[in-house]
């Protein structure tokens, strides 16, 4: 089973994946961008926000996704694979960048994933106050420096995209406590 943990920067995805990994060591945890050797190189370029063309940026995220699918997800489809981000980030950030069409983005991502969209998606939804508080406590990368309004637009696109695609999902209130969120995830995944 291939499960995505999605949401904008600092919403709490890695914290929850780490809790699950501690409890269930058999779960395979991974992330995009950067879950493969190629992905680590791509991540360095992507997070510096140095590409002038947003199409070039999109294509590099897609290349990372295709390699990640081939190397990490496909060989482990019989196990539980939890990825910190995936194609919902791919669509959400691209739509917030502008100049992209939803159906075209879905088709490009379907191509990168060889038609295999995730089985379930857990989306963390935050608000301006929590986003301000958590981003103020870290050094921001090039994408985060695009601003908090931008990130909240990404979040709306992520939510709408999941609803349009009809993939089984859980929406989480990211402002809730770490323990409450952990319990909601355990209940949803029935692990
Ligand atoms: N439910 C929560 N309540 C309070 N603080 C939290 C909660 N979840 C996570 N945090 C804190 O918020 C910060 C960001 O969390 P985390 O790294 O898990 O987010 P993320 O979604 O993986 O972020 P990014 O996408 O930027 O890597 C961390 O300092 C973490 O301890
Ligand atoms: C997969 C994916 C990611 N992004 C953005 C989202 C974040 O700002 C960074 C990844 O950083 P993190 O520390 O791993 O959360 O990349 C994107 O714009 N498009 C994508 O497809």
TrEMBL record:
<keyword id="KW-0067">ATP-binding</keyword>
<dbReference type="GO" id="GO:0004798">
    <property type="term" value="F:dTMP kinase activity"/>
</dbReference>
<dbReference type="GO" id="GO:0006235">
    <property type="term" value="P:dTTP biosynthetic process"/>
</dbReference>
<keyword id="KW-0545">Nucleotide biosynthesis</keyword>
<dbReference type="GO" id="GO:0006233">
    <property type="term" value="P:dTDP biosynthetic process"/>
</dbReference>
<comment type="similarity">
    <text>Belongs to the thymidylate kinase family.</text>
</comment>
<dbReference type="GO" id="GO:0005829">
    <property type="term" value="C:cytosol"/>
</dbReference>
<keyword id="KW-0547">Nucleotide-binding</keyword>
<keyword id="KW-0808">Transferase</keyword>
<feature type="binding site">
    <location>
        <begin position="7"/>
        <end position="14"/>
    </location>
    <ligand>
        <name>ATP</name>
    </ligand>
</feature>
<dbReference type="InterPro" id="IPR027417">
    <property type="entry name" value="P-loop_NTPase"/>
</dbReference>
<protein>
    <recommendedName>
        <fullName>Thymidylate kinase</fullName>
        <ecNumber>2.7.4.9</ecNumber>
    </recommendedName>
</protein>
<dbReference type="Pfam" id="PF02223">
    <property type="entry name" value="Thymidylate_kin"/>
</dbReference>
<dbReference type="GO" id="GO:0005524">
    <property type="term" value="F:ATP binding"/>
</dbReference>
<dbReference type="GO" id="GO:0006227">
    <property type="term" value="P:dUDP biosynthetic process"/>
</dbReference>
<comment type="function">
    <text>Phosphorylation of dTMP to form dTDP in both de novo and salvage pathways of dTTP synthesis.</text>
</comment>
<dbReference type="InterPro" id="IPR018094">
    <property type="entry name" value="Thymidylate_kinase"/>
</dbReference>
<dbReference type="InterPro" id="IPR039430">
    <property type="entry name" value="Thymidylate_kin-like_dom"/>
</dbReference>
<keyword id="KW-0418">Kinase</keyword>
<feature type="domain" description="Thymidylate kinase-like">
    <location>
        <begin position="5"/>
        <end position="185"/>
    </location>
</feature>
